[in-house]
Amino acid sequence: MSLAWRLARRELRGGLAGFRILILCLALGVAAIAAVGMLRAAIEGGLADQGSVILGGDAQMNFTYRFASVEERAWMESHAAKVSEVVSFRSLAVAGEDRALTQVKAVDDLWPLLGSVGLEAGTLAEAFAVKDGLPGGIMEKVLADRLGLKLGDRFKLGTQVFRLGAVLLKEPDSATSGLGLGPRTLVRTVDLALSGLIAPGTLYETDYRLLVPGADLDALKAQAVAAFGDKGLQWGDRRHAAQGVERFVERLGSFLILVGLAGLAVGGVGVASAVRAFMEARVATIATLKVLGAEGSLVLRIYLLQIAVICGIGVVLGLVLGAGGLMLGAPLLAGVMPFPVSFRLYPGPLLEAAFYGAVTGHLFALWPLAQAVRQKVTALYRGTAARVWPKAVHLAAMAGLLALFIGGAVWFSGSWKLALGTLGGVFAALLVLALAGLGLKALARMLARRRFVDGRPGVRWALAAIGGPRSEALAVVLSLGLGLSVLAVVGQIDANFRASIARDLPAKAPSFFFIDLQDAEVQPFLAMVKGNPAVSKVETAPMLRGILTKINGVNARDVVGDHWVVMGDRGITFSDAPPPGTKVTAGVWWPKDYTGPAQISFAAAEASEMKLKLGDKLTVNILGRDIEATITSFRKVDFSSAGMGFVMAMSPSAVAGAPHTSIATVYAEGSAEAAILRDTSKAFPNITAISVKDAIGRVVDALGAIATATVLAAGAVLVTGVVVLIGGAAAGVPARMREAAVLKVLGATRGRILASFALRSGMMGAAAGLVAILAGAIGGWAVLRLVMDLPYRFEPWSALGIVLGGMVATLAAGVVFALAPISARPARVLRDAE
Amino acid sequence: MNTVLDLKDVRLSLKGNAGPVEILRGISLTVREGESLALIGPSGSGKSSLLMLMAGLERATGGTVSALGQDLTGLDEDALARFRRGNMGVVFQSFHLIPTMTALENVAVPLEIAGEAGAFARAMAELEAVGLGARAGHYPSQLSGGEQQRVALARASVGRPKLLLADEPTGNLDTVNGAAIMDLLFGLRDRHGATLVMVTHAPELAERCDRILRLADGVLA
Q1: Is A16 part of the contact surface with chain B (CB cutoff 8 Å)?
Q2: Half-sphere exposure of A435 toward its Cβ, with a 13 Å CA cutoff?
Q3: Residue in B55, B100, B113 closest to A294 by CB
Q4: Phi, psi dihedrals of residue A717, rounded to the nearest 5°
Q5: Is B113–A374 a contact, with Cβ atoms under 8 angstroms apart?
Q6: A820 CA to chain B: closest CA distance, Å?
Q7: Which of A56, A218, A376, A601 has its CA 20 to 30 A from that of B43?
Q8: Distance from CA of residue B153 to its chain's centroid?
Q9: Residue A418 CB: number of other CB atoms within 10 A?
């Protein structure tokens, strides 16, 4: 056993009392990172284990607005053991006078090929069975409740009447659906034959789920894409069953891990303070060891070994807290997740959390340690240790640890931009906070000597304590300020998000989108809504859906990457003349009655992003048919108003004969919306109305869930900050005890002393809060403007909450830890101090 | 006899809030092997600072300090620490025992640091020599002031140093304990043949030394 280790062990025998804050700071940061990492691994594990069930088969072939052709169906039958067809579309479910938007999923008898459906009661066959001449349908409880339906009650989809056969609890393949605009209704496809909902040109998708046990999925995919890829086929298989969920989890997970890192940085400040306090208590021992002949390196090793042991305890405690907490909450979490989650111990995320904890602990401990061992013995004994720089070798070791930390963050997060951006933000915030802390000290020192504090001794003591030697100001502003800064950034982003959705959009957004209007219905529909005095504006346009597959003959994704225009199908309109209000920015619109080769007018901003030029040739697949068109004009399209906006408009002759429907937007007073919905759906049962307000509500709900997750993570950072704060307050108790004793000897009342202690805490909290507001404004602006390209406006309420929170937290900690000093008997305190 | 300590024109100034403070102003002295020297003088005269310079615990701002033929002024902190091993034993007024170690461990530490064999057996023998064999397993907080200083004496002498430096070793003790400590200190000095330099306020203790030097305002009076 080495000498350093022997001596370290002797010191550690005294117990961990001096290390409580250090252990807690590390444990909280590690726990947050471990829990987030484990959750992410559990979701990914669930998606991997249950890929086939989530997808509803081993592989899936998807078509937009059409069923598979005879040839495609034959290919599937020849390659798969089983093929199941699922049709999805939006519609209005009508029960009496009530109507609600629903995502309809129409299935065949084989569905679900894998997994099972959860119903409140009965079997799938019983629920779908025809009774009293009415086929059965299944609804989510929220939809049935909204329409006031009980089992056996009637409802209509289009012109087809169904009876409610069962209430849906869980679909095995719901994770592939993404964000729906309404709750689910399940019916059998054959029962929709008379509904009028699946007509040529209406907006629906078909998924063909294939069971291909033991097949080489890569080879199968290659064959299918070669045969039908140019006809609009989208392939999916069990390996990445829910890509949307995967991407979401990956991004949210990375983000949360980085918030966790900010938490560790806050904890790191606590670690540094705790190590400094620990080293201060060991100053005499270090001096004595040096007197007895110990070199600086031996002293450093003795204390580094102790820190390593303590960090180990903190890390293990953090892993137990994080993983244990998650496993305890597993049953609850598994219940609310819309996709399967495999909770078990994943070593990867635990190792990641342990890595961060160990590196942070040593990084923040090394500076005060390296400083302490460089002090002169006499300075240590006198308690007059000056600020000295650590040795070059120790500075190099710290730089190495920092590089390891940053490298680890980049490696584990998988996004160097996100990792470096976050760490850069944390370092910048720490720098600003350190400057603010020093500024506060200087200001307090200056104010303590001003006239206005004459006759206010409590204020003078508070200012002197903040500005004087051994002030807690820097530690408090750093630890609490960083926690509050993270919360402020999240708060500003969240408040701006909500504000832009809730306030800016509805002012100019329409009340309804109506989809699936057949040509013959357009004029009667327009006559009906225009006759309503509450309607201020109606717009209609014919619409087809198509996929932009090639640009100048080259695969579009190879040209423009993952630009949203080429990621899936887009609405395409056609028109003889530019619709009213259209602003052509370059080129010219085709002449009226033009019948030549297909031409296309493209949205100007998107064209610029995709580097398209006039004269470029685009291949668009519409209902399985490739149409090549030349770009002859660009026009301005405003997608932010939620009104009608098409990226592509084509010359009418190009799509002549293609089945299509029309889309309409209706702008009306809010009070008239219910009547418009009732009248139009009664007169035109097969068209679907989408309430923009409801749709926005769904998006806001989804955003709300994300915001809650991030606020919780930011809250963990704040909790760490508060722990650091409490640690600082607890460490300052002996000094306050002596101060209070002396003040009492000099005649100060307990109330006056307490008020002075509270005042200094409040001032430090307010300073931390003010810096957090600045950091929140800069961080919020950067994320919204630079990352999300959204407008930013300072949100004062969120900011005010941050300052008040900071003040209350420090005030509470200050007051709680002032109670013992003010109630202690002065004689005893002063005698002990001698 | 060989010269153990040789100080030439030693100066020490420390930074104070109101500017530099001259603590020592040109001290020159030599101490020979086996000699015992008492440094006396009023508070603030620079006695303890001079002792710290001799121990290599403080760095002179001018002049040279040689101990056992080694010029201390050119050595860095680590070299000074290595030099003290086996060459010097220091006793403080406030004992400066390591609170997390037992009496035995405290005494064994210098031998352990020097990498010497049988550290604990030798430490035990030294503790017994100061009459504390029965308290070897006690922590400093469980010992009285007199007992703590006896442990400190055992620790200072366990490495058989050629030079014993004591800074007011009885300053925190009552008369009876103070006298006992002095007996032990001189007993150890005699037993090991060490040179002793002691700072004290007490004339009766100073008179037990071979030579007395008086400091006043940073110079030898």
Answers
A1: no
A2: 7
A3: B113
A4: -65, -45
A5: no
A6: 24
A7: A376
A8: 9
A9: 18
3-state secondary structure of A554: strand
Q: Decide if B82 and A14 are in contact by the 8 Å CB cutoff.
A: no
Taking the C-alpha atoms of residue A213 and residue A785, their distance in angstroms, rounded to an integer, is: 49
- Which tokens go with A465? 């304590």
Question: DSSP letter string over A131-175?
Answer: BTTB-EEEEEHHHHHHTT--TT-EEEETTEEEEEEEEEEE-TTGG
Closest C-alpha among A169, A135, A168 to residue A154: A135
Residues of A with Cβ-Cβ distance to B92 under 8 angstroms: 381
Q: Which residues of A touch B57 (CB under 8 A)?
A: 290-291, 376-378
**Which residues have C-beta within 8 Å of that of residue A489, sequence separation ≥ 6?**
A425, A714, A775, A776, A779, A780, A783
CATH superfamily of B35-59+76-215: P-loop containing nucleotide triphosphate hydrolases (3.40.50.300)
Are the Cβ atoms of A376 and B96 closer than 8 angstroms? no
- Of residues A239 and A477, the one with the higher pLDDT is A477
Contact B90 A13 (CB under 8 A): no
CB pairs under 8 A between A and B: 72
Q: What are phi and psi of A235, to 5 degrees?
A: -100, 145
The DSSP bridge pattern shows strands B163-167 and B195-199 to be: parallel
Cis peptide preceding A112, ω within 30 of 0: yes
User: If you average pLDDT over every residue of chain A, what do you get?
Assistant: 80
> Which has the closest alpha carbon to A463: A190, A25, A762, A749?
A762
Rounded Cα distance, A158 and A206, in Å: 19
Residue of A nearest to B91 (CA): A291
Contacts A378 to B, Cβ<8 Å: 52, 57-58
Using only C-alpha atoms, chain A has a radius of gyration, in whole angstroms, of: 34
Q: How close B114 comes to chain A (CA, Å)?
A: 7
**Interface membership of B204 toward A (CB under 8 Å):** no
Query: SS3 of A570, please?
Result: strand
How far apart are alpha carbons A666 and A660 in whole angstroms? 20
Kindly list the distances between the CA atom of residue A291 and the CA atoms of B56, B100, B164, in Å, as whole numbers in the listed order.
9, 17, 12
Q: For the CA atoms of chain B, what is the radius of gyration?
A: 17
Q: Which residues of chain A does B51 touch, with a Cβ-Cβ cutoff of 8 Å?
A: none
**What distance in Å separates the CA atoms of residue A327 and residue A345, rounded to the nearest whole number?**
9
The pLDDT of residue A834 is: 43
Inter-chain CB proximity B100 and A285 less than 8 Å: yes
Smallest Cα distance from A831 to chain B, Å: 15
Task: Find the mean pLDDT for residues B21-28.
Answer: 92
Q: At what angle do helices A796-823 and A733-745 cross, to 10 degrees?
A: 60
**Contact predicate A763/A444, CB 8 Å:** yes
Q: What is the pLDDT of residues B86-136, one digit of tens each?
A: 899 989 888 888 777 789 988 988 888 888 888 889 999 999 988 899 999
Q: Which residue has the higher pLDDT, B155 or A465?
A: B155
Looking at the complex, does the CB of residue A142 fall below 8 Å from at least one CB of chain B? no
Query: Cα separation of A309 and A11, whole Å?
Result: 12
Amino acid at B34: G
Chain B contact for A291, CB < 8 A? yes
**Domain ranges within chain B, ordered by starting residue:** 35-59+76-215
The predicted pLDDT at position B81 comes to 83
Query: Which stretch of DSSP H or E encloses residue A73?
Result: helix A70-79
Report residue B221 CA to chain centroid gap.
22
Distance from CA of A11 to the nearest CA of B (A): 5
Separation CA A492–CA A790 (nearest Å): 13
**CA atoms of A106 and A206, how far apart (whole Å):** 9
**Per-residue pLDDT at A507 exceeds 60:** no
Chain A closest-CA separation from residue B35 CA (Å): 22
Burial class (CB in 10 A: 0-12, 13-18, 19+), A496: buried
Which residue's structure tokens are 């995709």?
A: A610
